[in-house]
């Protein structure tokens, strides 16, 4: 602790942090253990672990054709912040851990609307009550006409997506692992070893200022947009035809960004404890707004707090995992700049609702950073989402329960929808549709809420 205080005083006097992370180059200039250093911008170098397994050309399996899914939905935003989502295409139903393939069910009307309690009738009968008799036999005044709401913004998505099984023997599949604030590529150690042994090509970068990547001493280098452009360069360098993005915590936002920017190349996405579909905005009352020298003095307390909140158990094993994973081992300047640079107003609910890629949501039950309500909200907004909760895990669930997470991810990679049941779905008749439309909305109205995926579609105001 005394050493920490001395270094913080030196930090205040010199105006810079003492711990600056720089890349370590091998003696022969070649990447060791799959580690490479990529210069995404002049003077901005990221360390990347790239494992490309050897695949004999004679035994290489060809990728399967997959199943075509009709992705069609209408997203309407009203001026009062109300969000209405209508799913007009296919709805995927699947239990990832219980069956190999999911079935595709055509959805005639899945309209989600938050009722307007000030104008909605209080009873299912939409007929007005009979007027009371008056002495002068005057006709009662006609009821006021309800003004039709005008949408502020309407987004219509209508596309076909081919979803196929991604095996390790397929040469056109690449897995990208993106960590969050304070982490490094080492937190994915169990996943990188597991999937590389199965034959997958894996790519895991260190964000700027993390791990062995360069740490620029300027706050603008750690904004969301700066880091997103770094990962865009990494993605364009290593991407294949079918790419799967796996993100943790803050890294989920970058996976969402890449999936939105490259919908044809991103095949599937995994979000681990990523939170809800809200626009990013830094908190002005956070402890990370303190000066870097103060944060340096508080670094032992911050590390202890992260251990207590990030793991379900706080024992010697968890401390060793933090040490081996090089997690929460960044300079106070980088930590402060990362937390202050989390500004992404475009990443709201509409932005997430526009995604058509299948997404697996993994949540640790004991996570104290991300409540389960946020991941449930994410599953409600996304078009194709599967939420899985691991009861033994917390925020660092991929380090606490590596076998469970690896199995869950692998089965999601191999999963593909089954169109054989698509033709057997009973279509909704016109009379039933008319009857449903005549029923006034009193509460949250959701159609097809008996889905086994847990992707119940609801809506809330957009203001966060």
Any overview of this molecule?
Keywords: Hydrolase. Residues 117-153 are annotated as: Disordered. The chain contains 13 helices and 15 strands. With 464 residues, it is of the alpha/beta class. Residues 1-31, 94-129 and 424-464 have low confidence and may be disordered. α2 (189-197) packs across α12 (402-414). The longest helix has 15 residues, at 224-238.
Shape call: globular
Q: Uncertain runs with pLDDT below 50, 5 residues or more?
A: 1-31, 94-129, 424-464
Question: What about the largest sheet?
Answer: 8 strands, mixed
Q: Strand percentage, roughly?
A: 15-25%
Write down the secondary-structure element order.
HEEEEEEEEEHEHEHEHHHHHEHEHHEH
Question: Can you give the helix content as a percent range?
Answer: 25-40%
What strand order characterises the main sheet? 1-2-10-9-11-12-13-14
Structural class: alpha/beta
The tally of beta strands, per DSSP, is: 15
Distance between the termini: 39 Å
Number of helices: 13
State mean pLDDT (0 to 100 scale).
76
